[in-house]
Design brief:
Domain J: 215-279
Largest sheet: 2 strands, antiparallel
Organism: Vibrio algivorus
Transmembrane segments: 6-27
Distance between the termini: 68 Å
Keywords: Cell inner membrane, Cell membrane, Chaperone, Membrane, Transmembrane, Transmembrane helix
Shape: globular
Strand order of the largest sheet: 1-2
Radius of gyration: 26 Å
Number of strands: 2
Cytoplasmic side: 29-280
Strand content: under 5%
Length: 280
């Protein structure tokens, strides 16, 4: 209302009745913009800073990881080891490691507010889908720490995916890709396979097996019959989604950048194997 009154006043001073009408219109637009801004600030405040979002993401990731690990009823040594490995990969300092361990412990509590935590993560990430995808994949990796998925773990992952805005179909695809990635790592794929007859470090290395190739295709999310164009497109999409610098710019905690790098290397290794096998 203040904007309209001021608009009419100044409009009248400049151009009598026509000026008053124009001034009223401009004042009305001013009032609308002001109400909109006030409503936004009332509902959300000024919003968290980048550093605050990264801290929340970091703590939520380890807390949910602990919740996933406890889904079977008892946390296995493999899952505890995975959490420790993740901390080592992130080069966490003593204080950071304590924060991660405490968040992991809180996630194991029966009273842990899983849905609320995930909603906060989604709200904080906003439209940064790649960031949410990284969060989901981190939880899937935790569930695969011992090489298999328990039905209870799948149930928790379904909640995680749903709260983050991903469909059940999407989750299933990512579960297949992560299972293939797990086998691919176990088979040496992460470091790259040697071709049959190639010598490395004075020792002859065996080339990739059919199952290793299958895992490479699955990791990329493509069928073995896919043509070069489809495979290249899938590789480019995955690398874009997992680009460490882009993820950090979108809010990924710097401590998690090394994990993102390793995921990108894993994708590249699978692509190189498929590319050589296809001959393009």
């Amino acid at each position: 209302m203040l904007g309209k009154l001021l608009g009419i006043l100044f409009g009248s001073m400049i151009g009598n009745i026509p000026g008053a009408i124009i001034g009223c219109f401009i004042g009305h637009q001013f009032d609308k913009a002001r109400r909109s801004q006030q409503g936004f600030q009332s509902a959300f405040g000024t919003g968290p800073s980048q550093a605050e979002r990264q801290t929340e993401f970091f703590q939520a990731a380890y807390a949910v990881m602990g919740h996933v690990a406890k889904a079977k009823g008892q946390v296995t040594k493999e899952e505890i080891q995975l959490a420790s490995v993740m901390m080592d990969r992130m080069n966490l300092t003593g204080e950071q490691k304590k924060i991660a361990q405490e968040a992991f412990r809180q996630g194991k509590e029966s009273s842990f507010p899983l849905e609320d935590t995930l909603r906060k993560v989604r709200f904080s990430a906003g439209r940064r889908r790649d960031l949410l995808q990284f969060f989901l994949e981190l939880q899937i990796s935790a569930a695969f720490a011992d090489g298999s998925l328990h039905p209870s773990e799948i149930n928790v992952l379904q909640v995680v995916a749903s709260e983050l805005g991903f469909t059940a179909q999407y989750l299933q695809q990512r579960l297949r890709m992560q299972e293939a990635a797990f086998r691919f790592q176990q088979g040496g794929g992460f470091g790259g396979y040697q071709h049959q007859g190639q010598q490395s470090g004075g020792q002859w290395q065996q080339g990739p097996t059919a199952s290793q190739l299958d895992d490479a295709y699955e990791l990329l999310g493509v069928d073995k019959s896919a043509d070069a164009k489809t495979i290249k497109r899938a590789h480019r999409k995955l690398m874009n989604e997992h680009h460490p610098d882009k993820l950090v710019a979108k809010g990924l905690p710097p401590e998690m950048m090394e994990v993102a790098k390793q995921k990108a290397q894993e994708i590249q290794s699978a692509y190189d194997l498929v590319k050589k096998n296809k001959g393009f």
